[in-house]
Amino acid sequence: MGATPIDLWAFEGRWAVSREIADAKGADGRFDGAATFVREGAGLRYVERGVLRLGTTEMQAERRYMWTAGEGVEVWFDDGRFFHGFALGETAEATHDCPPDWYEVSYDFRAWPEWESRWRVTGPRKDYVMTSMFVRAG
Questions:
Q1: CB of 21 within 8 A of CB of 130?
Q2: Would you list the DSSP string of 49-118?
Q3: Domains (ranges, CATH) in the chain?
Q4: Is the bond leading into 100 cis (omega within 30 degrees of zero)?
Q5: Does residue 5 have a cis bond before it (omega within 30 degrees)?
Q6: Cα gap 6→112, rounded to integer Å
Q7: Is the pLDDT of residue 138 over 90?
Q8: What is the pLDDT of residues 48-86, one digit of tens each?
């Protein structure tokens, strides 16, 4: 087992990402791709690209966030809105209220430099768990 990251900058670089989406309503999915954390200003720009499969549909997918150092790590949407924050440690949890939906995330850094995020999303039309595994890419 590796050491837990001590700060935001430990994430810098390229990561392989594999994600499973378990949807209670039957729309299970999978994402396979890569994420990069690149220094930008006082933080790290997160850019993720890959292939998303939902049932028999396959499409290119991309998402972007900004990670900055605050009380811990603060995650911002690409348009500048605050998403969530968490303290760095072996594990961390956070929430995001986006009415009518509710997002809960747990991060697991105990096997650093491999790590996991697990999102539980609920709402009138949403009920899924999305688990992402991150492994340092060569």
A1: yes
A2: EEEEEETTEEEEEEEEEEEEESSSEEEEETTS-EEEEE--SSEEEEEEEETTEEEEEEEE-TTTTSEEEE
A3: 8-136 (2.40.128.20)
A4: yes
A5: no
A6: 11
A7: no
A8: 999 999 988 999 999 999 999 988 999 999 999 999 999
